[in-house]
Amino acid sequence: GASPQPDVAWHPTRAALGEAHQRWVVGMTVVSLLLVVLAAVVVYGVAVGTKYAKVVELRDTLGRMKAPGVVYIPFLFVYQAVAFAGARLVMDPDHVNEAVLGGCVVAAAAAAPAALYFFVLRKAAAKAMVIPDPLLHPEQPLIVALREVLSEDVDIVPYSGLKRDLYTFILGEAIWIDKEDGAFTDKFGIIFERYRRQCVWVAAFELAATLVISLAAAWVGDSEDTCNMRSLLITIVFATWFVVSAALRPCIAALNNIISTWLLGLCTLASCSMTVAIWARVDTLSLFYPTAYHALYGACVVVVIKAVCDVVALGVDLLTQRRSFPRQIGRMLAQERRAAEAEVEEEEREARVHAATLRLRREALEKDKAKWAREMNEAVRRLPKRPAAAAALDVELVLIDNSTDSEPPARGPARGSPQYPVLLGGTGKARRP
Description:
This protein is mainly alpha-helical. The protein contains 13 helices and 2 strands; from the N terminus they run ααααβααβααααααα. It has helices at residues 23-52, 58-64, 72-91, 96-127, 141-149, 161-171, 184-192, 201-217, 224-248, 254-280, 288-319, 324-382, 386-391, and strands at 128-132, 174-178. α3 (72-91) runs antiparallel to α4 and α4 packs antiparallel against α8.
């Protein structure tokens, strides 16, 4: 019909593309994706402009603008709506083009939690770490080391009293810093810095839960069993999400844990009330529908409070020196790491040079041994052969017969006879007896 579909009429863009029945869903999908792309283009445009204007370096600009992590905010704003719209196009398409568009959108939305974990959250554990907040614990070892490294003294006045309690309640007692001079926390910290180090995976879990809820909401079915299963699935997801938030308390700040637990608790209560009312087929004036209504209204109020608290926390974060000291500590750690790597590289280079020298010496000795062996073989080859030398002697040997002393010595056999003696050594000259 000419009127927009009820389930997408609330979308702020109210854009329709094409003339098909799903034109409002297509418009919501395309415009939402364009909003994320536009946010990324604006952020990088400002950063590149400051680089060419030679105001600050591109890396520093992106870090101060919390880019590209700041694009995660508009991404979250449209993620649930885009996943819902893509699933609706797949489940109830009017044309093949709509089904293809919906399939691509659903595939991209399904890959988002895994990509977030592997490309951001997993790297956060390797490239960043959590330390006590310098404004609350100025005597920690890293701050002491920073005082020793910097030429000027680092003067930190710790918060105390009510100011310390409010600061701790809003921002927590710990802060993320970089292990290396790459500004990873400044660029992507807006995604994970609200979580404790061992709970950064909760960000990907929350995105996956949002995806499942969106796909379940887009589940099209005319039967009563389909409606019941959809409501039950949404309730299970909300309940699991609530248990994870309440049991783990994954956030560093107590305020974030309280707001997240209350918000998920109200959503779970609303979903559970609606599920019971649908399964039990009760009247709209019963207890369950008003409970679900008030729970959803309370969840909306909590979301508004959360937005105000985030703005206050961002202001406190920018107006205080909360970020300056961690950046300096990160640069100090990066310099120490580079110095250690340079020292290790120098030692490895010296070891390679020493190994090459030993190899050259060994090759020289092998060549000398081969040369000496050739010379020895040549000298031995040039020595005269003994039988030939004995045959060349033109002498007559007198063989002495020791049988009797009275007989005169006999003349030796003629040369060439079998009895002719063969010299077995000596100087090569025969000696007469």
